[in-house]
Amino acid sequence: MLEPKRGAIAAVPCSDNQNTSIQLVELEQESVARAVSDVSGRLAHYFATEVIDGPQLAVDLEMVEARYNTLAAGFRGADIFYAIKANPSVEILDRVAALGGYFDCASMGEIDLVLSRGVSPSRISFGNTIKKESAIRKAFDCGVRLFSFDSEGELEKLARSAPGASVFCRILAENDSADWPLSRKFGCSVKMAGDLLIEADRLGLDAYGVSFHVGSQQKNPRAWREALTDVAKLMQRLALSGVGLRMINLGGGMPARYDNGETDLLEYGAVVMAAVREQFGDRTLDLIIEPGRGLVADAGIIQAEVVLVSKKDDSDAPRWVYLDIGKFNGLAETMDEAIRYQIETIRSGEAVPAVLAGPTCDSVDVMYEKNPYPLPLDLKVGDKVWILGTGAYTTTYSSVAFNGLPPLASVCI
Amino acid sequence: MLEPKRGAIAAVPCSDNQNTSIQLVELEQESVARAVSDVSGRLAHYFATEVIDGPQLAVDLEMVEARYNTLAAGFRGADIFYAIKANPSVEILDRVAALGGYFDCASMGEIDLVLSRGVSPSRISFGNTIKKESAIRKAFDCGVRLFSFDSEGELEKLARSAPGASVFCRILAENDSADWPLSRKFGCSVKMAGDLLIEADRLGLDAYGVSFHVGSQQKNPRAWREALTDVAKLMQRLALSGVGLRMINLGGGMPARYDNGETDLLEYGAVVMAAVREQFGDRTLDLIIEPGRGLVADAGIIQAEVVLVSKKDDSDAPRWVYLDIGKFNGLAETMDEAIRYQIETIRSGEAVPAVLAGPTCDSVDVMYEKNPYPLPLDLKVGDKVWILGTGAYTTTYSSVAFNGLPPLASVCI
After folding, report:
1. How far is B279 from chain A (nearest CA, A)?
2. Cβ atoms of residues B166 and B149 within 8 Å
3. Are B131 and B111 in contact (CB under 8 A)?
4. CA pair distance B301, B298, nearest whole angstrom
5. CA A122, CA A146: separation in Å to the nearest integer?
């Protein structure tokens, strides 16, 4: 890895002095917080040497690859279907394809994108349980043969427009311990899944398997165990009906670092796979995992800028720190303060809680108000900040032009 | 107004019969819910005659013009600065410009857009209190001379980069009765505003006035009264310091219809203007209002489509109805169920509560779960639905490509 360029920072130490000259501030700006280089020397070098106007995400492809290999080792025997909704940058798709990965797509738009990179349709899963029939037909015509469903209405569409395709039914899984729980929007009861898979078989579809999702950013690998018990019972019931399922899609949920500590994904995967063996022993089953956040979040860092530091009243606390990025141009997942990113600066002053807000005229564009974010007291207008763990669910969430602001820019290095 | 084309619907009445033929259903699809034609015959005609693929917003420019004239009459004597963040479609900008309107812009991107329509910079207010200094300088270089601020940091930028410009300070206003309250992100205390306006004058800026915002979708016109009392006291204090303010920016907040009843904006404006006279009598003051939602929301209707109707379990209630539009491609303001849109269909079956959700693989993309939305029991996959009052804060909030879905399409007629 390349060492980051540290500009004049080694010669002129960062100072808390209020009288710091403009020249020194400019030199400091050339530098990058040490935490960034601790994550990725390549990203630190990039931010230290590129002139970037406006907020920008940079993703380290080497980190994506390393993470892919860790997941492959941890979940040995499972096929990795990258949930491209997390970050559909073509460089990431190409890297995953080169590593032998598969792709979980949410729409025909995503399928078109993956196919445009020369990926075979046999490596694509149309994983959204809510699809227009026209999209199912188009995907089928393109050669996609793997589809998810969780309702009778969707099954009927699949039988009509993807005849003979392999289908898997998503069941509801408990996910209390996830930071970003998935509610009841997706999945049906285990009982209904059984009925629907028998119906799938009757309709001439290949009743291939079952999927579940324990919740995004799921920090407890044991969360899989309960759902796997349900899956085992469901398979037994279906076998008695002459329908032999052959696949379990373990979904995503593998956590990123954010501000509450790194998870050892090797160990994490081992715990999940042990739970699989516990239920299914040595039975030959196709296993799928669908990491999105778990694969790319930690490989990305956003560089943003302080636009304003203010108080609402002389006696008021805390300060308000406004960035040129907010909920509508990249940090949507701060909604309800669900995801708390690690934010770094080059200032070394005492860290004091601040309300963090975005640059739009929208009052909802406030990120950490309930739990203000500790930021250095000497943080100033024009200072760069680095928001870690932002490789997933940032670029595509960006609004197209809210308040006349462009969507989040992004590069892969 | 044109009468909507009703296809074969007049000859073959809408039926609750489960055996309705596919042919009849197709004919029904050509029709449009009566509620749409009640709002705008022009929009009903548009939806009845155009083949639209995917969700789309259509805005009736005649309705925008009518609303502009109502606001101008209700708030007689105030200049209308259209808050273009609500909907920056160039056809709307052109119509507002033709009516003699002004423009409230949130960013240099919005200013560039307005200038590109041939509008004079003298008709533009840079109304965001959070601006990069580079944007202030660029706007000033383009001829913009009206800027907002609410903090010392912003004032310093303005003094440096927009010397001599007219500035107004935003004060905090109470807004408990608004559906979309504006929190403390914008505005400072009245005391601080006084200090800052004196400072503005000292720095060579034109301390022009004061602004406040009573909260978006503010249904109580009396909400202005309290803030106006504060403004009057502030003006008195400043006059004693030799700083004579000449402008009050009354902000926006004028409500749209949504699902809880229309507001008579003529009467509403009269109540606000009476409160102004109560405080300031016949004093010559420039008055500004900044309607966004109040000008364009009711003039727009989104046509969307039912993608799936499902249950999670045989015993489960309520149904889930999935549309091809959700929080991430147009209906962001359903966040926390803040805005409850009026949704119309051509079905006449009994209306039974349904959880309404969008088409993405994101569990957050659920719109009305706490308070399910009554929809006809005979609503079916492929049915068109019309979402009323969606002319504001829909298109630009759209994510750029979340889940591979395109941003909300839009036309003006």
Report:
1. 25
2. no
3. no
4. 8
5. 8
CA distance B10 to chain A (A): 29
Q: Which of A332, A328, A324, A316 is nearest to A372 (CA)?
A: A316
Q: What distance in Å separates residue B190's CA from the closest CA in chain A?
A: 9
* Closest Cα in chain A, distance from residue B318 (Å): 12
Q: How confident is the model at residue B179 (pLDDT cuts 50, 70, 90)?
A: low
- The tokens describing A341, both together, are 């990113």
Sequence-separated (6 or more) residues with CB below 8 Å from residue A360: A326, A328, A329, A402, A403, A405, B85, B106, B128
Residues of B in contact with A309 (CB under 8 A): 153
The answer to whether position B387 is within a domain reads: yes
How far is CA B344 from each of CA B328, B347, B386, rounded to the nearest angstrom? 21, 9, 5
Mutate to test the interface with B, among A85, A138, A185 (most CBs of B within 10 A): A185
What's the number of domains chain B is made of? Answer: 2
Per residue in B347-378, pLDDT (tens digit) is: 999 999 999 999 999 888 999 988 999 999 99
Same domain, B272 and B393: no
Considering the domain architecture, whether residues B179 and B302 belong to the same structural domain is answered as no
DSSP B319: E
Tell which of B250, B270, B296 closes a domain.
Answer: B296
A369 phi/psi in degrees, rounded to 5: -110, -40
User: Two tokens at A268?
Assistant: 């994490």
Instruction: Examine the domain organization and report whether A71 and A199 are in the same domain.
Output: yes
Tell me if residue B14 is catalytic.
Answer: no
CATH of the domain at B336: 2.40.37.10
Contact: B314, A192; criterion CB under 8 Å: yes
Which token pair is A210? 């079952």
Please indicate whether, in this complex, the C-beta atoms of A184 and B312 are within 8 angstroms of each other. yes
Beta bridge partners of A368: A356
Catalytic residue among A142, A169, A188, A361: A361
Q: Are the Cβ atoms of A404 and B157 closer than 8 angstroms? A: no
Q: What is the DSSP string of B177-189?
A: TEEE--TTTS-B-
The answer to whether B151 contacts A313, with C-beta atoms less than 8 Å apart, is no
Eight-class DSSP state of B398: S
Instruction: Give contacts of B405 with chain A, Cβ < 8 Å.
Output: 107, 109
Residue A267: closest CA among A54, A66, A70, A45: A70
Structure tokens of A247? 């696949």
Do residues B247 and B262 both lie within one domain? yes
Rounded to whole angstroms, the Cα distance separating B134 from B150 reads 18
Global pTM value: 0.89
> Do A232 and A100 lie in a common domain?
yes
Residue B2 domain-assigned? Answer: no
Nearest residue on chain A to B313, alpha-carbon basis: A189
Return the ∠ at Cα B282 (arms to B276 and B283), rounded to 5°. 85
Residues in chain A within 8 Å Cβ distance of B172: 312
Pairwise CB contact (< 8 Å): B110 & A404: yes
Question: Using 50, 70 and 90 to split pLDDT, how confident is the model at B21?
Answer: very low
For B400, the closest of A129, A360, A398 (CB atoms) is A398
Q: Within this chain, do residues A131 and A232 fall inside the same structural domain, yes or no?
A: yes
pLDDT band at A196 (very low <50, low <70, confident <90, very high): very high
pLDDT in tens, A35-87: 899 999 999 999 999 999 999 999 999 999 999 999 999 999 999 999 999 99
Which tokens belong to A91? Answer: 């460089």
- B199-216 pLDDT per residue, tens: 999 999 999 999 999 887
Q: Are residues A96 and A109 in the same domain?
A: yes
Residue ending a domain, among A266, A296, A326, is A296
Looking up residue A116, the CATH number of its domain turns out to be 3.20.20.10
Domain limits at A11?
Answer: 7-60+298-412
Count how many pairs of residues, chain A against chain B, have C-beta atoms within 8 Å.
219
